[in-house]
Amino acid sequence: MIRPGSVSIVGAGPGDPELITVKALKAIHAADVILYDRLVNEELLSYAGSGSIRIYCGKAPGQHAMPQGTIQRRLIEYALEGKRVVRLKGGDPFVFGRGGEEVLALAARGIPYEVIPGITSAIGAAAASGVPLTHRGVAASFACVTGSRCPGESDGQVGPPIRWDLLAHAVDTLVIYMGVGQLKEIRAELLRHGKAGSTPVALIESGTTGRQRTFVSTLTEMHKLAAAVQLSNPALIIVGEAAAIREQLRQLQDQASAMLG
Ligand code: SAH
């Protein structure tokens, strides 16, 4: 149970509010303060105590998101006041969630913390769209990769370059986060490094939510399809033969329902 004067860094899951852990729900319920992100389903806040403080850290329309340094300072300040603090994030805190930076900041100040994992959007969206990330005889490995060249750029932090040359060959299924704005560059990199243009690609928008849209294309064609359907964030790009399983599933379902008449 979350203690006064401590911080829980909590994964809220991929979008469907039921895809959260029991432990995370208990932490939300017990929290005095909740700092939550844009990708967190706000329905989850209904589990918070009525007296709790809720602070939105995402981007309000026309405004900037709360800077990472400010979020970290707030976590520390509330914990030092003796509050039970929950830092609620979409998906999993340690998968493109900046949870690592937050625990480092807390550890540096000696603030007690815990990390409660969440279902990351790759796992959630794969399940909800019929794209197995591994599949016997088809895909024996998957990797989660950022499609944005410079993760955290707005805070002046530039990540190491992404090794598309290695990823194109070493991993069977690539799940690309934050890639919608970079589809052409991702396509160019993978093709340049020898990934077949016919490789199946699934594009999944708002995975696991009632607004989910899924499209299947190929590496060559994916940017055109994304433009045609106005693919928008949050969305994932899954590149690999496993993406074709979705089509296989659909065909089987159609055949089965035709047989049942
Ligand atoms: N910590 C989060 C990722 C945050 S980065 C996690 O574990 O899932 C933000 C990116 O996550 C988005 O650009 C998008 O690529 C992906 N994403 C998050 N939620 C999503 C959803 N419901 N459907 C598709 N992609 C999602």
From TrEMBL:
Q: What class of enzyme is it?
A: transferase
Quote the InterPro entries the UniProt record gives: 4pyrrol_Mease, 4pyrrol_Methylase_sf, 4pyrrole_Mease_sub1, 4pyrrole_Mease_sub2, CobA/CysG_C, Siro_Cobalamin_biosynth, Uropor_MeTrfase_CS
Keyword Acetylation appears in the UniProt entry: no
One of the GO biological process terms: siroheme biosynthetic process
CDD domains from the entry?
Answer: SUMT
UniProt xrefs under Pfam families: TP_methylase
What keywords are assigned to this protein? Methyltransferase, Porphyrin biosynthesis, S-adenosyl-L-methionine, Transferase
Record-listed E.C. numbers? 2.1.1.107
Span of domain Tetrapyrrole methylase: 7-222
Q: Name one GO molecular function term.
A: uroporphyrin-III C-methyltransferase activity
Q: Which residues form a coiled coil?
A: none
- Transferase as a keyword of this entry, yes or no, is yes
The family database entries (SUPFAM superfamilies) matched by this protein are listed as: Tetrapyrrole methylase
The record's family statement is: Belongs to the precorrin methyltransferase family.
Q: Protein name, please?
A: Uroporphyrinogen-III C-methyltransferase
Origin organism is Fontibacillus phaseoli
The organism's taxonomy opens as: Bacteria, Bacillati, Bacillota, Bacilli, Bacillales
